[in-house]
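Ticket #4471: structure output looks truncated?

Reporter: J.K.
Steps to reproduce: submitted the chain below (111 residues) through the standard prediction queue, then opened the result file.
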Amino acid sequence: QVQLVESGGGLVQPGGSLRLSCAASGNIFRFNPVGWYRQAPGKEREVVARDFLGAYTNYADSVKGRFTISRDSAKNTLYLQMNSLKPQDTAVYYCNLAGLWGQGIQVTVSS
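Returned output as attached by the reporter:
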């Protein structure tokens, strides 16, 4: 069974950047779509970004122009580059590979 390990979260000031990684134990290109989701306290889990084998990607309106999803086939890793972070980006972030979930990682944006 494929395992997913997330990393790269933490505490960052508003306007800062983080890059989340989701390392898979198998070939990441077997999975389609892949994506990142997040869940803030008291809120439902929501889609942040999804990639459909590079054919197209979509982003939540709240992160367009700031976040970028990408894959590295050599490393079997999915990334989420997050720039210009805002306090409202604070949440637990989860990667998802065609229905498989990562363990979740905390991102906190605060001064």
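Triage note (M.O.): checked the attachment and the full token line is present. The chain is about 0% helix and 50% strand.
Status: closed, working as intended.
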